[in-house]
Write a structure and sequence with these properties.
This protein is an alpha+beta fold. It has four domains: about 80 residues, Elongation Factor Tu (Ef-tu), domain 3; about 60 residues, RNA polymerase II/Efflux pump adaptor protein, barrel-sandwich hybrid domain (OB fold (Dihydrolipoamide Acetyltransferase, E2P), Beta Barrel), CATH 2.40.50.100; about 80 residues, Helix Hairpins (Orthogonal Bundle); about 70 residues, conserved putative lor/sdh protein from methanococcus maripaludis s2 fold (Beta Barrel), CATH 2.40.420. It has four helices and 23 strands. Helix 2 runs antiparallel to helix 3. It is elongated. The relative contact order is 0.17.
Length: about 375
């Protein structure tokens, strides 16, 4: 009888000790930590390379300088009222003229003929009125003698009054023709300086066409744009000095006027400063308006214009937070002075801003998960 022998059982598999897997786990964790720390170090390095500026504390109020220009209180553009060729032009640009002085003469032959025709028609109307008046007197005499009826007298009276009205109309037409003939002579309305003379002898003047412009040199002023934040401290007794190109020293403003309307785009008001009579001034000259410290000045924040990011109607800057990340923040800006622009709201003193918006935008997009 055959005997079946059982096969020996395989030796049990021994599991690797747990302490033999720890070197691999520690190695993987070390590599992950190295990658994370390396990425953070790279991001910190890029943040450190980003040019930035600390927004300084708003210091004490200082004198404010505004840019302005000289302009004339009385500036007149003389236009033609009648059509005709310019036949006389005794002035040129830059000439000083007196009130009532002849500036130019326009061909008046057509106007004179029209006035003569109106005068002849007026004489004919006067003759008709004289005849109607005599006829009305005769009709009244006949009516008193009972030779005509009341209806005939009324008809004569109506004819007399109608003729009288025609005479008045012809006289008014004659006065109008004589007035229009006076439009052919252009005279200065006041003592002035000829600023522009765009026409020449022989040019055709048409109604509404500008013939010349002039201004009063004895009444000049400086206009500047004042920020809304500075308007409250300004009064008509504020001592304001003005520096004008070509003048050896600053001159005080003789009168101060601040217009009440505020420009919605720049949030500024128009400041007008009357000037004393000075030689050598002309409209258009550059001027600087100096507001004394404490008069109409307040402590403000300003940042470089190059740090501002423009997106359609949005004005913003990249503010670096406590973690060193640039964050876009909207601002409300004020007036610009040189390479600096005033910050009205959206930024506080002590915050750090990026000076290169494009580099900050790239860094921010790269730091997003």
């Amino acid at each position: 009888m055959a005997q079946t022998s059982a096969s020996p059982a395989p030796p049990p598999t021994r599991l690797a000790p747990r302490r033999q897997q720890r070197p691999f786990t520690l190695l993987a964790l070390g590599l992950s930590w190295a990658l994370l720390t390396g990425s953070a170090a790279a991001a910190d390095a890029k943040t450190a390379q980003l040019r930035s500026q600390l927004v300084g504390q708003a210091g004490p109020a200082q004198a404010t300088m505004l840019e302005g220009a000289v302009e004339a209180l009385r500036h007149t553009v003389v236009s033609a009222q009648v059509a005709g060729a310019i036949v006389e032009l005794p002035v040129k640009a830059g000439d000083r003229v007196r009130a009532g002085q002849l500036l130019m003469r326009i061909d008046a032959r057509a106007a004179e003929q029209s006035a003569n025709a109106s005068a002849a028609q007026a004489e004919a109307a006067r003759a008709s009125l004289h005849l109607a008046s005599r006829e009305y007197e005769r009709q009244q005499l006949l009516f008193k003698q009972h030779f005509i009826s009341q209806a005939a007298l009324d008809q004569a009276e109506a004819q007399f009054k109608a003729t009288q009205a025609q005479v008045n109309a012809q006289l008014a037409q004659l006065a109008l023709a004589r007035t229009q003939s006076g439009f052919n002579t252009v005279r200065s309305p006041y003592d002035a300086v000829i600023a522009e003379l765009p026409v020449a002898l022989g040019d055709m003047a048409m109604p509404g066409r500008a013939l010349l412009s002039l201004y009063d040199p004895s009444a000049l002023r400086v206009t500047a744009r004042l920020p809304q934040s500075l308007a409250k401290g300004l009064s008509d007794k504020t001592p304001i000095s003005i520096e004008i190109a070509g003048q050896p020293k600053a001159v005080p403003a003789s009168r101060i006027q601040l217009l009440p309307t505020i420009d919605a785009q720049s949030h500024t008001l128009e400041l007008r400063l009357d000037l004393p009579a000075l030689p050598g001034l002309a409209p258009g000259q550059f001027a600087r308006v100096l507001l004394p410290a404490g008069a109409a000045t307040v402590a403000t924040l300003s940042i470089p214009v190059t740090a501002v990011q423009k997106r359609a109607e949005l004005s913003a800057v990249y503010v670096i937070n406590a973690e060193g990340k640039p964050l876009l923040r909207q601002l409300r800006l004020g007036a610009r002075q040189g390479d600096q622009i005033e910050v009205l709201s959206g930024l506080s003193a002590g915050e750090r801003i990026a000076l290169d918006p494009q580099a900050a935008a790239l860094l921010r997009s790269g730091s997003q998960p």
